[in-house]
Structures are given as structure tokens and as C-alpha cells.
Write a structure and sequence with these properties.
- By secondary structure, the protein is mainly alpha-helical.
- It has 22 helices and 2 strands.
- It is elongated, with a radius of gyration of 25 Å.
């Protein structure tokens, strides 16, 4: 993609391609280096070619000197030249809220499949660090201001509407086909289009809306990465989405992002971290969160406590969920929490009761929890239902026939899902089937699923 930022600052500096190349060579010689470049090199940089990091910093220094302003690599569109730090995206720096350079570098590292960022495990201290910084910011009443200098075209309401529509389209694909389906396409869109918008010329009115929309897009990137099994990368996107929501002065969205981080921590078995994240979301939005949003925070706390085996605490959190949920008022909740209805509430309850070993209760709520709105969500609930029919091998309630019927329907309807989470649900179910392997229903299910991609993926996972 053409480097519009570099082109605009080059025009601002009044330098031709030849002049910039000459200045870079002269500066490199004074620094004891021999960096060779000419007007053709500059043309390549303007066309989107990434120079080496040392060259990129020299370009920034030359342009800073010529204009009397200080430019970072992000300012001149050369973030991709920077070396990738293994901690990229983990720091939540409230003092530099509008610097989108780390996020742009993260998007690029993702697209380039840089293993130190993409194939890593999440870090518990990063969850707690981001949570503390966000809570302190919320209590201090600190606000963000527009950058003193921005390049690129002016950004208005039409741009924000287009961004939201694009995010909605990717969210629909995520629900239907899983996070592994169009994840890279979303990252490419964020990197090529949204990065330029965030550093564009913003009006005071357009900035909060733009940064909120960008936060929602980055939150979706986090969810899709989480669903694809890229947990360290997802954690980084969650933290960066929280930072964008902070810049937008949107604490309600920030609380929802912490809520999503709690969901991931629960999935990874990090119950204590998940509880803290859910409680921080509730604490940081007290007085501004709607009933629907607050109820979801309680539900996430319940999920975390259930995974941790705290039946008393989970029960109290579930009671709080219902009490607050019943106070919802039509039209009051933000659009992005509108999915949290009676059906979704039942899905949360079914998961909690599954994790607490209350299989009959899990079955009751799972039966109420499919809506057809999300193929993946329906898959999760059906697999909870199927697993609950098995209970334990020596239980009088174990029913492998019903379990296989429910699982068969879920697997067939979800066969096109590209989701590491779906594979894990199915892998766990296959392990639960092992004591019943002589059952006719189990043998029939295994035989009928030979060519199903989800079943095959679970078989591969199960054998590793």
C-alpha cells in the first residue's frame, strides 16, 4: 500500500526524492555508517516498501530536522521497520494513549506471522497490569486530547459509519464460520485502512466515535484470535482495544473489554484472574453501566468461580446475574450487548452448571439456549448438552444415545466452523465417550463422522 504519511511529510519538508536520499546518505556517513539509497529507493518507500530499521530512523531524523518537528516511525508510516519486541502490545501506557504505533506494529507482526507475538502464551501480569491502569485512569477522571499534529486526509462521520459497517460484516462471518475463517482479512483491513484513519486529521467531534469504533474492531480481532487458539495474541489485542476505548473516553466499552478478557481467562482455567477482571469491569463502570451490561459482568464472574470449583460463590454470582438482568429496560443497553438475552443467559447458566458438575441443571438450561443467531454459540450449547447427557459412566442418568444424537446434530451443523474452541469442546466430548465405546450409538456416531472436518480436527487434537 502507498505510504501516504511519508509522502505528505516529504511534501511538508519540501524535499524531492533525490534530496531525501542525499540527506539520508549524508546523515548516515556522519554516524559512521554507509547506507546507500537514491531517488529510486525513496520511490519504493513511498510505494510501501519497508526499509531496514536503521534507515527508517535516519529518514525520520532527516524529516524532523527539515520541518522542525519530531517524527516517530509511526508518524512517517514506517512502523513495520521496527524490530518486534516480545512484549509488543502487552503494555498499557496511559501517558501515551494516542500513540497507535505499537498497535500498528502488532497488526503487521500478526500479518507477517512473527512467532514471538503470534505463537505465545498469555501473561497473567499483563491482565492485572492493564486492569489496574484502567481503573486508576477511570478514578482520576483523566481525559485524552487530540494529537497536536496529524497527517493524511480529514476523517468524518461517514468514515466512522463505514468502519462500523465493515466490523459488523466481519462479526457476522465470525459468528457463522468461526474466528479462523476471516481473521487475517480483518487484521489486514485494520492495518491498511484503520491505522491511517487513527492518524488522520480528526475533528473534536469525530475523535471519540472513531476511537470507539476502532476499539470495537480491535476487540473483534481479539475475540477471533482467541477463538482461533492464539491466546497470547488475543490478550495483546484485548489490551490494545482497552487502550483505544480509553482514548475515546468510553469506560463502558472498556468494561466490556475487561469482561471479554475474563471470558478468555476462564477458558484457560485462570479462575482467579478471570474473577478479578469481571469484578474490575463492574467496579470501573459503576453508576454508568446499564442493567444488561452489569448482568453480563456478574455472569462472567459466575463462570470464573464455577471453573475454580467455588460452588457457593458461583451461586451468589448467578443470583446477582438474574436480579440485575430482570431490571433491564428496552432500548437502554448499548447495541454491542443486545445479544445478551434470555437465550444467552441460559447458555451462561448451562456452562456454569456443567463446570460445577450439576448435570441435570446444565441440561435444563442448555435446552433453552439455542437461538440460531450464532452457529458457533449454538454449537457450544449443544456440546454442553451432549456432555451433560453422559455425566459420568457410573451415573444412572448417563444416556449415551441421547448424547450422540445431540452431538451429531451439533457437529453436522457446525462442520464449517474454523474454531479452536469448537475443536476443544468436541475433543473433550470424545474423551467422555471412551467409557461408552461399546455402545451402538457411539459406534454409529464415530462411523458417520469419518469425513466431518470438525470431527477429524478433534481426532488429531485428541491424539496429540
Amino acid at each position: 500500500m502507498p505510504n501516504e504519511r511519508l509522502a505528505e511529510i516529504l511534501r511538508l519538508a519540501g524535499l524531492s526524492n533525490k534530496a531525501l536520499a542525499r540527506r539520508v546518505q549524508e546523515l548516515s556517513a556522519r554516524r559512521g555508517r554507509e547506507i546507500r539509497c537514491d531517488h529510486t529507493s525513496v520511490s519504493r518507500w513511498l510505494s510501501g516498501t519497508t526499509p531496514r530499521e536503521a534507515t527508517a530512523w535516519l529518514i525520520a531524523e532527516v524529516l524532523s530536522s527539515e520541518t522542525g518537528r519530531s517524527f516517530s516511525l509511526d508518524d512517517i508510516g514506517l512502523t513495520a521497520s521496527q524490530s518486534v519486541d516480545a512484549r509488543l502490545g502487552l503494555d498499557y501506557d496511559t501517558a501515551d494513549g494516542q500513540n497507535v504505533g505499537p498497535l500498528e506494529t502488532l497488526w503487521n507482526a500478526d500479518l507477517q506471522d512473527i512467532r514471538t507475538v503470534v505463537s505465545v502464551e498469555p501473561e497473567a501480569h499483563a491482565w492485572s497490569g492493564a486492569t489496574l491502569q484502567w481503573l486508576l485512569r477511570a478514578e482520576s477522571g483523566d481525559t485524552r486530547h487530540q494529537p497536536t499534529y496529524a497527517v493524511g486526509r480529514a476523517i468524518g462521520n461517514g468514515d466512522v459509519q463505514a468502519l462500523r459497517a465493515t466490523i459488523d460484516a466481519f462479526a457476522s462471518l465470525d459468528d457463522r464460520f468461526g474466528g479462523g475463517h476471516a481473521r487475517k482479512a480483518l487484521i489486514q483491513y485494520l492495518h491498511t485502512d484503520v491505522a491511517g484513519m487513527l492518524t488522520g486529521r480528526l475533528t473534536e467531534a469525530s475523535q471519540p466515535a472513531l476511537f470507539s469504533a476502532a476499539a470495537e474492531g480491535t476487540l473483534l480481532a481479539a475475540w477471533m484470535s482467541y477463538d482461533a487458539g492464539l491466546h497470547g495474541l488475543a490478550q495483546r489485542y484485548f489490551i490494545q482495544a482497552l487502550k483505544l476505548a480509553d482514548v475515546a473516553d468510553n469506560p463502558l466499552l472498556g468494561g466490556t473489554i475487561l469482561d471479554a478478557m475474563s471470558h478468555q481467562a476462564t477458558y484457560l482455567g485462570r479462575s482467579a484472574d478471570a474473577v478479578n477482571l469481571a469484578r474490575a469491569a463492574r467496579s470501573g463502570t459503576r453508576g454508568i453501566a446499564t442493567a444488561g451490561v452489569t448482568a453480563h459482568f456478574h455472569a462472567m464472574e459466575a463462570r470464573a468461580l464455577a471453573v475454580g470449583g467455588d460452588s457457593v460463590g458461583a451461586g451468589k454470582a448467578l443470583n446477582s446475574t438474574v436480579r440485575v438482568f430482570e431490571k433491564r429496560e428496552p432500548g437502554r443497553d448499548p447495541e454491542w450487548i443486545s445479544y445478551f438475552d434470555d437465550t444467552e443467559l441460559s447458555a451462561e447458566f448451562s456452562h456454569c452448571f456443567r463446570d460445577l458438575g450439576r448435570h441435570k441443571d446444565a441440561l435444563t438450561y442448555a435446552a433453552r439456549a439455542t437461538s440460531g443467531a450464532s452457529n458457533r454459540s449454538d454449537f457450544f450449547v449443544r456440546m454442553v448438552e451432549a456432555a451433560s447427557h453422559l455425566a459420568t459412566p457410573d451415573s444412572p442418568h448417563a444416556d449415551p444415545d441421547l448424547a450422540c444424537d445431540v452431538a451429531s446434530e451439533a457437529i453436522r451443523s457446525g462442520s464449517q466452523l474454523k474454531s479452536a474452541r469448537c475443536i476443544r469442546y468436541l475433543t473433550d466430548f470424545r474423551r467422555q465417550l471412551e467409557p461408552f465405546e461399546t455402545s451402538t450409538a457411539v459406534r454409529d456416531l464415530v462411523a458417520s463422522m469419518e469425513d466431518n472436518p470438525l470431527w477429524e480436527s478433534a481426532a488429531i487434537t485428541n491424539s496429540t
